[in-house]
Amino acid sequence: MITMKLESKAPMGPVGQKWSKYKQDMKLVNPANKRKFDVIVVGSGLAGASASASLAELGYNVKCFCFQDSPRRAHSIAAQGGINAAKNYRNDGDSVYRLFYDTIKGGDFRAREANVHRLAEVSVNIIDQCVAQGVPFAREYGGLLDNRSFGGAQVSRTFYARGQTGQQLLLGAYQALSRQIGLGTVKMYPRTEMLDVVLVNGEAKGIIVRDLITGEISSHSGDAVVLATGGYGNVFYLSTNAIGCNVTATFRAYKKGALFANPCYTQIHPTCIPVTGDHQSKLTLMSESLRNDGRVWVPKKSGDTRLPQDIPEDERDYYLERKYPSYGNLAPRDIASRAAKEACDNGLGVGPGGRGVYLDFAASIKRLGEDKIRERYGNLFDMYERITGENAYKRPMRIYPAVHYTMGGLWVDYNLMSNIPGLFVLGEANFSDHGANRLGASALMQGLADGYFVLPYTLSNHFASTKQNKPSTDAPEFKEAEEGVKERINKLLSIKGKRTVNDFHRELGKLVWDKCGMARNEAGLKEALERIPQLREEFWEDVNVLGDAEELNPALERAGRVADFMEFAELLCLDALHRKESCGGHFREEYQEEDGEAKRDDENFSYVAAWEYKGVDDTPELHKESLVYEEVKMTQRSYK
Ligand SMILES: Cc1cc2nc3c(=O)[nH]c(=O)nc-3n(C[C@H](O)[C@H](O)[C@H](O)COP(=O)(O)OP(=O)(O)OC[C@H]3O[C@@H](n4cnc5c(N)ncnc54)[C@H](O)[C@@H]3O)c2cc1C
Description:
Distance between the termini: 48 Å
CATH topology of the largest domain: FAD/NAD(P)-binding domain
Number of domains: 3
Low-confidence stretches: none
Bound molecules: flavin-adenine dinucleotide
Strand content: 5-15%
Number of strands: 19
Number of helices: 17
Strand order of the largest sheet: 5-2-1-9-17
Largest sheet: 5 strands, parallel
Shape: globular
C-alpha cells in the first residue's frame, strides 16, 4: 500500500520571506486567459464572499452558492467582537512577528508556521481593504481607528464595529460581491445546497446541488472548486453557531477522498449565556470583548445563594486574575473555559443549576461611567437582558462556556488546496491556522485573508501550472454523483419512522458534549465510539422526515445534515481518542500537569492528524503532517 505523503508546499527560506518569495516565483495567468476559467465557490460568508469578489475582479468567471436566501445571511454576520490586525496603531509593542507568535502560542504549537506568518502579514492589508469599502470601524476621539484587547494577547490589536463586527465586514464583502454580480462576473445561487463534489480523473471539477425551493438536483462543472462552508460546531447540537451551520460540504468532500484534519480541535467559548433547559436549540455568545472591562468571579464559599451585590469583595474569587496574573481576565479561551468548569465542578457555580460564573462590570462602570460601557457594548447588554431578563449594568452577567468554533477542517497545503487537486478550502472550513486553539478575533482575519489575499494568488498559480479541461456535466461522473444524491434523499424520505430529526440530533449532541466536550478521557471516548454507530443505525431505521423531495422541505435539509453529523461525530471522537496528550481545546483528563494545565506531548504528537475515509463502518486511515518549528521555540504555554 502506498501511504500518502502530506507536503505543506510552503516555500523554502526564512518564515518572514516565504510569502514574498511565493508571490515573486508564482506563475501568472494573463488577463485575457482568465476569462476562460470557471471557478465554483461554495459559501458566501466572509471567506466565500471575499474570494468570489476578488476572483471575479481578477477576471475569472465565478459561480457562488449558499443555502441562505441571501449571501448577507451567512453565519459570519453573527461575529460580534472584532478582527485582529498587526497595525500597532496603539504603539503598544505590536508587530507582524508578535501576532504570528501569539497565534502559534495561542494554538498550543499545533499550527503550521509558514501559514500563520502569512496570516499575520496580510492582516494589515485586510483593515485597509475594509476601510476602503466603508466598513464603519470604531474610531477614537482623534479619528484614528480604535482597538481593544482580546484573549491571549497583551497588546490592543482588535479592530471592531461596536458588537457587530462580522455584520459590518460581511456587508463590505457583500458589496464587493454584489458589484461583480452586477457586472455578470459572478453568478449567485442562493437557497442552493451543495450535496456532493464531483471528481474527474482525480481532480475536483464540479458539484451537485439541490435547489432548496424546488428540490431540483443539478450539476455544475468548473475548473476548480472552492469550499468556504464554515465550521461544524453544531455536531454538539447546542452551540453559538447559527442553526444552519453544518458539516455536509466538507464531510462529503471527505467521503470523496479529501483528508479531514484535526477534527477533535473544537473551541469552547468561556462567555456564553448558560443553558437553561432542554427546550433550547441554540446558545448565545456574549462577546469576548466584554472581558476587556468585565471581571470574572465566583463566590469563595460553595452553595452561596446570596445575591452577587451582597457578597463582599473578600468573599469573591476572581480566579482568572488569581491564577493568571499577567493575562488575568484575558486568558485565552481554552484556559478561561476550563477554569470556569473547574469552579462549577467544585460547587462554586452561580445561577440555576450552578453552571455559571459572574462577569462583573461594576468596577469598570465606576471607573469609566455607564455611558462609556453602553457605548462599547450596548447591543450585547441589550441582548443579554432580552434573553435573561437581567440588567447587566446593575448586576453581573452570568456566563458559562459553550461550543463556538472548530479549528479542525479539511486538510490544506500552503496553497489552501486540499489533497484533491483543484479542491480549495477557505475560512473555518479548512483546518486553519489556529492549531489546537483559536485566539479571539482571529477567525474573521483568517477568512478574509484567505479570500481577499491568499486564494487569488494560489489559484492563479494552480491554473498557470496545470493543464485544465473543464468536463461537461453530461460526463458519467456527474450522472453517478447525481444518482447518489437522489438515492440518499429518497432513502431519508422513505423511512417514515417515529423519531424526529431534532430528537436524534439532540441525543447525538449531548453524547458528543458529555464525552468529547470540554474534557475528554479514554473511557468516555470509547463509550461514545460504541454508541454513535448504534445511534446512526437507529437514525436510518427510525427517523421521520415529512414532506417531499420536490418542494421546499426544511425537515429534509436538516435530515441530510444530521445524517452527516452521525458519521462525522465518530471521526471527531476517534481523533480525540488517538491524541494522547492535551493541547489547546483538546483536554484529555489523563494528560494534565499537577496544577491542572494541559500537558502536551511534543515528542509524539507534534503533527497534524489528517484522516482518510475508508467506508462508513471502517476505521479511517491516519496520515500525519509533521509540524516543524524553525522560527519559534516550542515551550510550555504559560499565561501566568
Ligand atoms: C456568535 C459568534 C461570534 C463570533 N465572533 C467572532 C469575532 O468577533 N471575531 C472573530 O474573528 N470570529 C468570530 N466568530 C467566528 C467567525 O464568525 C467564523 O469563524 C467565521 O465568520 C466563519 O466564516 P466563513 O466564511 O468561514 O463561514 P460562514 O460565515 O459560516 O459561511 C459559510 C457559508 O457556506 C455556505 N454553506 C455551507 N454549507 C453549504 C452547502 N452544503 N451548500 C451551499 N452553501 C453552503 C453558507 O450558506 C454560508 O454562506 C464568531 C462566531 C460565532 C458563532
